[in-house]
């Protein structure tokens, strides 16, 4: 990243590339260029900071089934699934994609800042609640470097580099994985995407990552491959309405609040948070719900944290209907977009709210579906 002129930021215990300015670009210009490259050609991103845990043993599937809110026993080897973890309270704690490497082995990913906490929580439950399970838990965050290759040309760049592996859409569909080698380097290849485009996450031993990155970079240059940073990643995921735990959530949000009620298993006899999620208070129709916002003026970008009220100019104190959690300018849409948590928001699409600004202005916004780009999800399956 330094070789490409990255500007870095602190993320948890890591320093991550935030954006890659060229020719005197400011952050806004650099991010717009990076986002456009991912949408039209391909982008490459260092995702190594994601937490990684191996869950291994004869009872690995049962452990996963008890720990996560969704089901795991029937997930096939070579398949991936989005996993959501709740506390006993029923509130969202962490999330990530999980791949089943073998019948008795899962490759679990967590948020960058949540890795240690999730592993500690796993160990706590294994040792105190489920000591009968034959399972080993190992942190592998530092063992695997992760190169995210995203965009409509990602497959064309990667296909010549992997050794004897068919990565066509038929052989490696979205949310599948394969083990193999890339230039002789051991690899776990996940077909996953946090951008909504065709995406691959190439897991290789950390000590060999730079060599693999350089090969991908050289192969991708004729295709317009562009490095992108965390700021572009945030914009791309927001365009698709993908949540970030810790940004859309604040420790009091349920899976249903953030649009993930579909993930809550109705068939499992038990999992962490199951009882709490059945409480009437956690299913009330006026709970904050994740929605999208569009400003009346498409060039106005809301401040994250802004409160949302029904009537402009109402003197304080006033009860807010919600708040802005994520806000960006979208190059793909040519306008500003935002994600918010709004009371009963999913039943209020089309309604108008106002975001009071520090200067006294009241910014008019409309509540919309949080998936702004490719709502049918066609591009990710390309």
UniProtKB/TrEMBL annotation:
<dbReference type="InterPro" id="IPR029043">
    <property type="entry name" value="GcvT/YgfZ_C"/>
</dbReference>
<dbReference type="Pfam" id="PF08669">
    <property type="entry name" value="GCV_T_C"/>
</dbReference>
<dbReference type="InterPro" id="IPR013977">
    <property type="entry name" value="GcvT_C"/>
</dbReference>
<dbReference type="InterPro" id="IPR028896">
    <property type="entry name" value="GcvT/YgfZ/DmdA"/>
</dbReference>
<dbReference type="InterPro" id="IPR027266">
    <property type="entry name" value="TrmE/GcvT-like"/>
</dbReference>
<feature type="domain" description="GCVT N-terminal">
    <location>
        <begin position="3"/>
        <end position="268"/>
    </location>
</feature>
<protein>
    <submittedName>
        <fullName>Sarcosine oxidase subunit alpha</fullName>
    </submittedName>
</protein>
<feature type="domain" description="Aminomethyltransferase C-terminal">
    <location>
        <begin position="289"/>
        <end position="374"/>
    </location>
</feature>
<dbReference type="InterPro" id="IPR006222">
    <property type="entry name" value="GCVT_N"/>
</dbReference>
<feature type="binding site">
    <location>
        <position position="201"/>
    </location>
    <ligand>
        <name>substrate</name>
    </ligand>
</feature>
<dbReference type="Pfam" id="PF01571">
    <property type="entry name" value="GCV_T"/>
</dbReference>
């Amino acid at each position: 990243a330094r070789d490409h002129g990255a500007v870095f930021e602190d993320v948890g215990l890591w320093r991550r590339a935030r954006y890659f300015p060229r020719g005197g670009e400011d952050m806004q210009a650099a991010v717009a260029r990076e986002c456009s490259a991912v949408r039209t050609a391909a982008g490459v991103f260092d995702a190594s900071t994601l937490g990684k845990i191996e869950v291994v043993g004869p009872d690995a599937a049962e452990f996963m089934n008890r720990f996560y809110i969704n089901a795991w026993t029937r997930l096939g080897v070579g398949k991936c699934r989005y996993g959501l973890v709740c506390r006993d309270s029923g509130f969202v704690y962490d999330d990530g994609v999980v791949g089943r490497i073998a019948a008795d082995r899962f490759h679990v990913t967590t948020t960058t800042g949540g890795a240690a906490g999730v592993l500690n929580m796993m160990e706590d439950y294994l040792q105190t609640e489920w000591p009968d399970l034959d399972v080993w838990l190992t942190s592998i965050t530092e063992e695997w470097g992760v190169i995210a290759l995203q965009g409509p040309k990602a497959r064309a760049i990667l296909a010549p580099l992997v050794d004897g592996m068919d990565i066509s859409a038929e052989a490696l569909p979205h949310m599948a994985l394969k083990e193999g080698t890339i230039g002789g380097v051991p690899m776990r290849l996940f077909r996953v995407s946090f951008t909504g485009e065709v995406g691959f996450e190439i897991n290789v031993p950390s000590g060999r990552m730079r060599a693999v990155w350089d090969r991908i970079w050289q192969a991708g240059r004729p295709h317009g491959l562009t490095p992108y940073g965390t700021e572009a990643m945030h914009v791309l995921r927001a365009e698709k309405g993908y949540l970030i735990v810790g940004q859309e959530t604040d420790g009091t949000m349920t899976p249903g609040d953030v649009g993930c009620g579909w993930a809550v298993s109705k068939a499992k006899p038990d999992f962490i948070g199951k009882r709490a999620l059945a409480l009437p208070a956690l299913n009330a129709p006026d709970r904050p719900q994740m929605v999208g916002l569009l400003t009346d003026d498409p060039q106005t970008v809301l401040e994250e944290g802004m409160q949302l009220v029904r009537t402009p100019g109402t003197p304080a104190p006033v009860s807010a209907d919600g708040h802005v959690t994520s806000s960006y300018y979208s190059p793909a849409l040519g306008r500003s977009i935002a994600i918010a948590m709004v009371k009963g928001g999913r039943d209020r699409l089309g309604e108008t709210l106002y975001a009071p600004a520090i200067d006294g202005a009241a910014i008019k916004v409309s509540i919309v579906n949080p998936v702004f780009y490719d709502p049918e999800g066609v591009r990710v399956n390309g």
